[in-house]
Amino acid sequence: MHSFGYRANALLTLAVTILAIMCAVASFSDTFNSPSPTAEIKVVNIHRFQKLSNGNDEVAMVLNISADLQSLFTWNTKQVFAFVAAEYETHKHVLNQLSLWDTIIQSKEKAKFSVSISNKYRFTDQGSNLRGKEFNLTLHWHVMPKTGKMFADKIVLSGYRLPEQYR
Amino acid sequence: MAWVRDQIDAVKSIQIRQLLIQAVSLGMIVTSALIIWKALMCFTGSESPVVVVLSGSMEPGFKRGDILFLHMSKDPIRAGEIVVFNVDGREIPIVHRVIKVHERKDTGEVDVLTKGDNNYGDDRLLYAHGQQWLQRHHIMGRAVGFLPYVGWVTIIMTEKPMIKYLLIGALGLLVITSKD
């Protein structure tokens, strides 16, 4: 009962159990955080709007994004992945979601920002339905914990419209 | 050395009844591990409920050796989710983030484009030749939970098989020689 093997085994089991419980508690403590992020997105300029040779519409725009995601950070937060997506409906598709820009925020201090950017990923439709199209710009965030459950949410900003003519 | 001698003596002193008991307890360990794995498969609805991150393409979120828990539900796939997908002609599944979704009205089929957070461009270069989009059947599950470092055990074991055999051997010996 008192051999080296038994003691090592008991110690290892205890250590792993405590570590597992601590991870579970850390992850569970995130549920007490009720964040209240804010976001504002402006379309500053649409500098290209054309039909590509394959028949798909493409838009290039400059966005002004200001957001405050500081309340998402807890002691168990490793990073917040935030991105802005354009979302719209066409006669063929219930939902089109196109990520336009994203960022990885690793500290609470950097979670309040205001940037002017042109879209990082191409805003291309599957077809040519974009003229005069109304769309939403949605700020999504995905919180990656140091350990445990990941969670995500979004702020939907609606009422944006693309021009009637290519330019 | 005394410990080793004790162990050898223990092996020598095994009787047939004890041998049977030990075989049963070894069987219990193996089957309970199998039961846990299959139960996880049932609960999560994913054919592999746990995956180990093998590349750095999702850094700094997921590093090599981290473990992800997967869940496969009927919920539609949306941009921003981290999915595990298989590409035809590639053995190892990839864990990347969805950046574009087009969901058809008539059939409900989705076209999905993915990208690794740490990669410069999207994943079209990783897909099969000429493939532009992923469909539902490529996707094995979405990541819902995260545990750091634990996956290193399996990475070391697959890359250094000697360690694996040593470990299995030592554990087997322990089970056989342990006196309940």
Q: Please give the CATH architecture of the largest domain in chain A.
A: Sandwich
Order of strands in the sheet with the most strands of chain B? 1-2-6-3-4-5
Q: Largest chain-chain contact?
A: A-B, 34 and 33 residues
Number of strands of chain A: 9
Strand content of chain A: over 45%
Which percent range describes the beta-strand content of chain B? 15-25%
Largest sheet of chain A: 4 strands, antiparallel
Low-confidence stretches of chain B: none
Main beta sheet of chain B, described?
Answer: 6 strands, antiparallel
The helix/strand class of chain A is alpha+beta
Give Rg of chain A in angstroms: 23 Å
Characterization of this structure:
The complex is a heterodimer of chains A (167) and B (180). Chain A has one helix spanning 4-29, and strands at 38-51, 57-68, 77-88, 93-105, 112-118, 123-124, 134-145, 148-149, 151-161. The longest helix of chain A is centred in the N-terminal third of the chain and has 26 residues, at 4-29. With 167 residues, chain A is α+β, with helices and mostly antiparallel strands. Chain A has 2 domains: 1-32; 33-161, Immunoglobulin-like (Sandwich). In chain A, 16% of the residues lie in helices and 51% in strands. The N and C termini of chain A lie far apart (83 Å). Chain A is elongated and about 85 Å long. In chain A, strands 1, 2, 5 and 6 form a 4-stranded antiparallel β-sheet that branches. A 4-stranded antiparallel β-sheet of chain A has the order 4-3-7-9, with no helix packed on it. Chain B has 2 domains: 1-44; 50-152, Umud Fragment, subunit A, CATH 2.10.109.10. Chain B contains 4 helices and 6 strands. A 6-stranded antiparallel β-sheet of chain B has the order 1-2-6-3-4-5. In chain B, a hairpin with an 8-residue loop joins strand 3 and strand 4 (94-104). Chain B is elongated. Chains A and B meet through helix 1, strand 3, strand 4, strand 7 and strand 8 of A and strand 4 and strand 6 of B. Strand 8 (148-149) of chain A pairs antiparallel with strand 6 (139-147) of chain B, so a sheet runs across the interface.
